[in-house]
Amino acid sequence: MTVHIEAKKEDISKTVLMPGDPKRAEKIANEYLENVKLVNAVRGMNAYTGTYKGKKITIFPSGMGIPSMGIYSYELFKYYDVEEIIRIGTVGAYLEDENLYDLILVNNSISKSNYYLDLSGETTHMVNSTEELNSKILKEAINEDKNVRFGNIYSTETFYDEGKNLKEFRDDFNCLGTEMESYALFCNAKHLNKKAACLLTVSDNLVTKEEIDSKKREQSLDEMIKLALEASL
Ligand code: HPA
Questions:
Q1: How far from 11 is each of 39, 66, 205, CA to CA, in Å?
Q2: What is the pLDDT of residues 23-79, one digit of tens each?
Q3: In what helix (H) or strand (E) does residue 73 lie, and over which residues does it extend?
Q4: Ligand 1 atom closest to Cα of 179?
Q5: pTM of the model
Q6: Distances (CA, A) of 117 to 111, 124, 146, 173, 185
Q7: Which of 56, 91, 116, 165 is 20 to 30 A (C-alpha) from 108?
């Protein structure tokens, strides 16, 4: 038990899948897992543990943004002995040829956040995902004949970003898009010597202005979910 998680230690698996939205966590648990048990309900961050093809797996929502992901992934790694976390989320695409529902696997997460400085006393604004987890995900994508782009992401603290971030991070740092949680997850994994990956579905394109509405966002991320579950076996 921690300040934010009431689960018993034995009810959390070594591999955790983290969507942002608690409703998505519930949907994944009900649709894909067997023997499902609610293991956390503090602050409505309902988390579920069950089995997928016989393997114990926990689906724990991160909430939105670096601080929320920072809290939950830190407590899971540090106090629940979780070894690997795969974030499954959505991304606003920076390139015109990225279509809605395309999949992106994050290489480096780049951010202006001071999360790592506050966490460790050191400064870094670019953190890498874990190669071992990435190669499992990419291998599974090949098995399932799914296209996945592998590249950098700008992890922002400002959803309503009216500045020049798109141009700067796309052109100078080769970012494929923006989301709001991977940086905290990768910082915690780096600091605590754990493994982390981030698989994303394009929910909006910041160049073409196309977007998936919120109801579909909740419902239509099946390809990504299946890929993450298979990679976690
Ligand atoms: N900005 C930030 N985070 C996001 C976006 C976006 O456009 N789309 C999905 N997550």
A1: 7, 25, 38
A2: 999 999 999 999 999 999 999 999 999 999 999 999 999 999 999 999 999 999 999
A3: helix 66-79
A4: 3
A5: 0.97
A6: 12, 7, 37, 21, 14
A7: 56
CA of 106 to the centre of ligand 1 (A): 14
Enumerate residues lining ligand 1, CB below 6 A: 90-92, 156, 159, 178-180, 203-204, 206
- Taking each helix axis as running N to C, give the angle between helix 222-231 and helix 131-143, from 0 to 180 degrees, rounded to the nearest 10: 120
Contact (CB, 8 A) for 29 and 48: yes
- Which protein residue's CA is at the shortest distance from atom 3 of ligand 1? 179
Which secondary-structure segment (H or E) carries 118?
helix 115-120
Cα 198 to ligand 1 centre (Å) = 14
Ligand 1 atom 2: residue of nearest CA: 179
At 193, list the tokens: 């010597």
